[in-house]
Amino acid sequence: MHSSNNDRQISHGRRAWLYLWTAAVLAFLVAPSLIVIPMSFSASNLLEFPPSTLSGRWYASYFSSSEWMRATAISLSTALLTVLIATPVGFLAAYAVARTTPRLGSVATAIIVLPTILPHIVVAVGMFFVLSWAGLINTITGLTIGHVVVALPFVFVVMLSALKSYDFSQEKAAVSLGASQFRAVVDITLPQLKMSLVTAALLAFISSIDEVIISMLVSTGSASTLSRRMLVSLTDVIDPTIAAISTLFILVTVSVIVIVQLTGNRSALVPGGTER
Amino acid sequence: MHSSNNDRQISHGRRAWLYLWTAAVLAFLVAPSLIVIPMSFSASNLLEFPPSTLSGRWYASYFSSSEWMRATAISLSTALLTVLIATPVGFLAAYAVARTTPRLGSVATAIIVLPTILPHIVVAVGMFFVLSWAGLINTITGLTIGHVVVALPFVFVVMLSALKSYDFSQEKAAVSLGASQFRAVVDITLPQLKMSLVTAALLAFISSIDEVIISMLVSTGSASTLSRRMLVSLTDVIDPTIAAISTLFILVTVSVIVIVQLTGNRSALVPGGTER
Amino acid sequence: MDVHLPTGGVEITARDLGKRYGGVSALRETTLDIPAGEFLTLLGPSGSGKTTLLMILAGFTRPDSGELFFGDQPVHRLPPHKRNVGMVFQNYALFSHMTVAENIAYPLRIRGVGRADCEKRVAEILSLVHLEGFEDRQIRQLSGGQAQRVALARATVFKPKILLMDEPLSALDKKLRDQMQVEIRRIHNALGVTTIYVTHDQREALTMSDRIAVLNRGAVQQVGTPNEIYTSPKTAFVADFIGGSNILPLVRNGEGVRFADQDILALNSPPDAELLYLVARPEKLMFSSSGEPALDANRFSAIVTNISFEGDSYAVSAALTNGREVTVRCATTIRALPKEGEIVTLELARQDALIVRGDT
Amino acid sequence: MDVHLPTGGVEITARDLGKRYGGVSALRETTLDIPAGEFLTLLGPSGSGKTTLLMILAGFTRPDSGELFFGDQPVHRLPPHKRNVGMVFQNYALFSHMTVAENIAYPLRIRGVGRADCEKRVAEILSLVHLEGFEDRQIRQLSGGQAQRVALARATVFKPKILLMDEPLSALDKKLRDQMQVEIRRIHNALGVTTIYVTHDQREALTMSDRIAVLNRGAVQQVGTPNEIYTSPKTAFVADFIGGSNILPLVRNGEGVRFADQDILALNSPPDAELLYLVARPEKLMFSSSGEPALDANRFSAIVTNISFEGDSYAVSAALTNGREVTVRCATTIRALPKEGEIVTLELARQDALIVRGDT
């Protein structure tokens, strides 16, 4: 579709307005996402942009607060549990869907991605009712169940798309060379999907850390997650610590994505990539 | 990759465990999402599953509450404004990205999808700071700006994927037949992307209706959106009206998706589809 | 070193193998005997059942009926990984996360062959396919022809008695394909393994095979040497699929046959079938010079409709009196090339006129 | 009705057209004169610059240098939609949301042609491409050949004086391609429009063209009629690309040339170039029968390395004394086919031996 030849049919003059549009859209999108970074270094007790004096006091305030630290610990352990459950389950579901008939596969896909299609608030409400009923409100178990439901579609979609571009004839070749079906999956398929599995796990991790609405309902008081506590703090008083935490969030997310991209690209040069 | 021949290499016996896994995963995913439906028809003041007596009282309670109705009106008008802004802007951005060089395109794409990559809570915090600064807290304008930032990536991704599978040589053919570049887009490209534009607009609509976290921060009191009010209600008292509203949410979302799917499939049979 | 290589082949016996998908016969009951060490090509258009038959041999497809023996051993119930059959896939299906040596050693590793022995056999087979020193290459660094050789090495390193190849050259360009055809035959000759080769390219089949089985719509039409298949096709489909042919419908007339009210002199007597056709290869049709009729030849009056220069020859299209178009191929050295619109007489010698039955 | 159809053609004059992408010449300075109404084919492998040249003619690519005239009108600064040139794309590029009639009427609609006139001209052109009654068909209901005809109709309905075709038959299978080649020539003859046709298929170029321009690595190698190009190639590239050829490197020796210490008798005197090659078509090499040397022929000793049966002929590979492999094509009726390993004498008559220069 896109080719360097195609470009040339729109002259640079005509493209100017497209560039302008794009630039405006980009500025509009980036500003709110990144404004917290300069704000977080303000020395003032009030929110300031641009900050008049720079300081790291709000970072200090975050790391020295036992409440924030506790919330962070809860977020991290829930996210880790979510990854450990959602990644293998999501892979197996995707493998089953990729190998079954198209009709059965699309029914299963529709059901698995249901929680991402339905309004998040509805899933949270349902989850709240189910967990209340099971007596799991304010437990890490309950929170993890909620987050797995949210994270699973991400793992599933990443693995399904990897399996769809994976050349299953390699598995078949392994079988023709004497490997059992199980051994072919372990020897041939899994090593080639390594990068996608890492990506899927990281996505599951981030989606759990980021989840607010279910956390809002099922983990209260001392069982609060980090993102829940941020939201609640902001609706009470304006605390610049939030800007510091948001900046750390951005740092972690961007690092993870950069790492995935870099290893992803390296995999095009060294073995282990899924391309061929 | 997938072919009916491939299927046959896994015998039905071996596939049984795959089916079981899938079924378990599906049940686990569907339950919390759909449990609100039976609950909403309970006659009891308490949450019950399964409900002992059926009634429509919680639906009546929703429709007769002026507070819920006001929240619904705010949600709907914000969503409509969001659609009207995000759809054309997202299409133009996607068109520009599709026609520019791959390098410039991928930079623009990365920036446009940034709000979906960053933790939602971070975007909400940044948006809160920006809107406070601009004095737009508790206004529909402020809320709409927040929702456009969230909805735009959806529109962009849908339109970009449509444009990537669109055969630009049709535009080129129109130019070779005497049409100006602009006329070629209007006569040839837009009519063929009709279905994708509708899908993108509906996605923008749903994403706005569904948005809670930005709404949580920037619209309070009488300016509350529906989803925000649901979340706040649940953290205060357990009000089964929420189950009724959730059920209505599911109904609307599923109807929209079914309509898109049906028209999408019809477009494969009648003109206007993007396939060829 | 090469002394260890010959693996020998084993005889393959297929009895009434059949396979249906839904209501459709992908392969009608097929019986086929393939002697040990033969290079047999399954040739046919897509959907002819050639791949289904290959997949039944490999064990990836379970036949609905029939029996299959490798030598004396019945294998039709054996899963594919226990059949000990080498297979080369259309897209090579090399393991992209392994080096060339790791790819080739994989079947040996599974069979628990020791490290030293493994290395020796990998080096041996790499030398056979002329890829000495390629052990540590990555798969993505290989050209199409090299990938093809690695796939061939991997499928034979464990000394299977049977080698299956599924259109292995279809992804290569013409020059490389010609070269690999010679290479594959050479390796087949060196190993002596019974080889079943699937292709839709009739030229490839003619060039490479000991015997060819021509398939159409799930049924074997004819099995024979390339020469037999080309010079004595048994059905109109075979005549048309192998080399271009003019196929003219015949009407039975007592002992003989007629075309457009004209008795036909033919090489063979009409076979016992309802539909009969005359096969005339384009290079066997001649423009009759003036009035001296050749003895023992069929003569047709025709009008020239198109002349194409094709470099080494002309392709002349001509409409016979009943409207049927035939193609005549003549050398560029021809003395009198007719013009478009000219009325000519075409001659087909009796020994070049073959009568075949319609498709079964 | 057909009286209205002929649109006539216009002469195309290209002067020093060149195009670079980054540091690479996609098209070196090219000068080309195409008389009104000619069917000219641009033939070359991918990356040879043939598509770049076509896109410059269409206006989609702006040349870095040179001038372009359609008749007397300079067009090299004109945007594509003002050039009034018909174009058929490789994938047809039919508007999939419009019917056949709407597709064909689109260029008329843009030109403000009235409804009634539109309908009349659509019907007229549909009858020319033998698609009467297809007006209301959807694009997705068309077969490949029909889509091809609609694309052709759409590109000619507004009576352009120039028609550009970019590998229009590459998506069709062989039988349909042969048929469409004849069709396209017929429509060209009916309209008289100057046609530039891009292909990488040498057979297609030989069959269809008035003249062929052979391109390689951005440069035009030779322009001539199919017969000239085939029988008198000027460079080794052209000889190799058009029909199979044996290309043997020559060494200049005074007035004459030598190959492997042997003086070569040739049709032409050596051209003025550094690298010289002998072109020997496979069908012109003969096995010399016994000891009676033909007068005026080159004789080469060779050892037969491979024999392939290809149905209508044998392809015999033989290694000359200096190791070079040549291919000899001989009819299946040959009396004494040599065997693999046999030493043979090959004969090439003087009138079949052409000396060409290396690629420019």
From TrEMBL, chains A, B:
One of its GO terms (biological process) is transmembrane transport. Keywords: Cell inner membrane, Cell membrane, Membrane, Transmembrane, Transmembrane helix, Transport. Residues 72-260 form the ABC transmembrane type-1 domain. GO terms for cellular component: plasma membrane. The keyword Ribonucleoprotein does not apply. Pfam families: BPD_transp_1 (PF00528). The chain crosses the membrane at residues 16-41, 73-98, 110-134, 140-163, 197-218, 238-260. It is found in: Cell inner membrane; Cell membrane. Its main location: membrane. PROSITE patterns: ABC_TM1. It is a multi-pass membrane protein. InterPro entries: MetI-like, MetI-like_sf. PANTHER family: INNER MEMBRANE ABC TRANSPORTER PERMEASE PROTEIN YDCV. Belongs to the binding-protein-dependent transport system permease family. This is Putative spermidine/putrescine transport system permease protein. It comes from Chelatococcus asaccharovorans.
TrEMBL record, chains C, D:
It is an enzyme of class 7 (translocase). GO terms for molecular function: ABC-type polyamine transporter activity; ATP binding; ATP hydrolysis activity. InterPro entries: AAA+_ATPase, ABC_SmlMolc_Importer, ABC_transporter-like_ATP-bd, ABC_transporter-like_CS, Mo/tungstate-bd_C_term_dom, P-loop_NTPase, PotA-like, Transp-assoc_OB_typ2. SMART domains: AAA. Keywords: ATP-binding, Cell membrane, Membrane, Nucleotide-binding, Translocase, Transport. It holds the Pfam family ABC_tran. GO terms for biological process: putrescine transport. One of its GO terms (cellular component) is ATP-binding cassette (ABC) transporter complex. It catalyses: ATP + H2O + polyamine-[polyamine-binding protein]Side 1 = ADP + phosphate + polyamineSide 2 + [polyamine-binding protein]Side 1. Its EC number is 7.6.2.11. The complex is composed of two ATP-binding proteins (PotA), two transmembrane proteins (PotB and PotC) and a solute-binding protein (PotD). Belongs to the ABC transporter superfamily. Spermidine/putrescine importer (TC 3.A.1.11.1) family. Part of the ABC transporter complex PotABCD involved in spermidine/putrescine import. Responsible for energy coupling to the transport system. PANTHER family: SPERMIDINE/PUTRESCINE IMPORT ATP-BINDING PROTEIN POTA (PTHR42781), SPERMIDINE_PUTRESCINE IMPORT ATP-BINDING PROTEIN POTA (PTHR42781:SF4). This is Spermidine/putrescine import ATP-binding protein PotA. It comes from Chelatococcus asaccharovorans. The gene is potA.
